[in-house]
Amino acid sequence: MGVEKTKVLLPEQIKEAAELLAQGEVVAFPTETVYGLGANALNPEAVGRIFTAKGRPQDNPLILHCSGVEQVEPFTLEIPSAARLLMEHFWPGPLTLVLKKTGAVPLVVTAGLDTVAVRVPDHPVALSLLQEVNFPIAAPSANLSGRPSPTRAEHVLQDLGGRIAAVVDGGETGWGVESTVLDCTVQPFRVLRPGGVTVEELQQLVDVTWDAIQELEAPRSPGMKYEHYAPNAEVFLVTGPGAAPKILELSEPLLADGQKVGVMTWEERAELYPALTVLPMGRAGDLSSLAHKLYHLLRAADQLGLQVLFVEGVDEDHLGLAIMNRLRKAAKGRVISAGGEEEA
Ligand code: AMP
Ligand code: MG
């Protein structure tokens, strides 16, 4: 590490961020999904610093961020025509494609795999940083391993202040959940991680599969076996129409015991929980608003000193699939299905 203080740079100071990257330092920067922690992908020592700063397991590969399709070509052996179609349609944007790699990608980036994950981010700061340096930037999310991903520069500083050279503060990120990771080395293409681009949107263009059961039992993406998105509070994800009575029943003994208990729920349902600290998810059913604030709410639970956080589940389609994927992991398997009468 050897970083005394983390510089906070403004988007106007992008040249300074580019210089730090060229010198082999790691720099956090905003993308349209979450903040990324970048290093020169062609410098193995610099990439190694990402793993050290995050405490990231060495076998969890990174995404190669590129300025455009042309920059991807030298790093991939072949790009199937269906993958090209997706690039044309969704790049720049929150879609990461896993392709066969060439020898030009250092093994530390791909954790020894013979495939590489690539994407072109859709954010002015990320794109101008990529244009300023003449190498691809390897970047995972800019959080300590296991913690919720950062959607604001202050989240990056909470986790990595003093551990990285700089963060470019570009304000809040847009989507709030990470990119969709799609394996294009199998037929049909397989979604490894749901994200900003939905399975429904992909299926309009190419044949893709998503196997939720498989994901729970045998993670396909190397990173998915690790703990993720977890605040210090114990999270319980409660699904189904009987969620509110179930949460009230479960919280009663905790409150009697003097614990600080919170609930994540739609604004319109806040009044169902008079005795709990409410973290509002936005207007009922607004999934993009929920995705946008999801990680901020998980971090807020810690700032509020909550010991237990109940979260109401959402429908698992469209953006709800990515949101529930993150919530299941934040809950570390504490998922309660509450049937029964709709209470509100
Ligand atoms: P993040 O840590 O948020 O940057 O997420 C990157 C995700 O992409 C992790 O789940 C990685 O395991 C996954 N990933 C990166 N490279 C590959 C690859 N070559 N094959 C499969 N998954 C990958
Ligand atoms: Mg991450």
Describe the structure.
There is one protein chain. With 344 residues, the protein is of the alpha/beta class. The protein has two domains: 204 residues, Alpha-Beta Complex (DHBP synthase), CATH 3.90.870.10; 104 residues, Threonylcarbamoyl-AMP synthase, C-terminal domain (Rossmann fold). It is built from twelve helices and 16 strands. The strands form two sheets. Strands 1-8-2-3-7-4-6-5-9-10-11 form an eleven-stranded mixed sheet, with helices on both faces. It has a five-stranded parallel sheet with strand order 14-13-15-12-16, with helices on both faces. The radius of gyration is 20 Å and the shape is globular. The N and C termini lie far apart (52 Å). The mean pLDDT is 95. It binds adenosine monophosphate and magnesium ion (MG).
Strand content: 15-25%
SSE topology string: EHEEHEHHEHEHEHEEEHEHEHEEHEHE
Query: What's the tally of helices?
Result: 12
CATH H level, superfamily name of the largest domain: DHBP synthase
Examine the coordinates and then state which fold CATH places here, giving the name of the CATH topology of the largest domain: DHBP synthase
CATH top level of the largest domain?
Answer: Alpha Beta
Q: In percent, how helical is the residue content?
A: 25-40%
Number of domains: 2
Are any ligands bound, and if so which? adenosine monophosphate, magnesium ion
Which structural class matches the secondary elements?
alpha/beta
Q: What does the average pLDDT come to?
A: 95
**At CATH's second level, what is the architecture of the largest domain?**
Alpha-Beta Complex
Low-pLDDT segments, ≥5 res: none
* Main sheet makeup: 11 strands, mixed
Q: Give, in spatial order, the strands making up the sheet with the most strands.
A: 1-8-2-3-7-4-6-5-9-10-11
Number of strands: 16
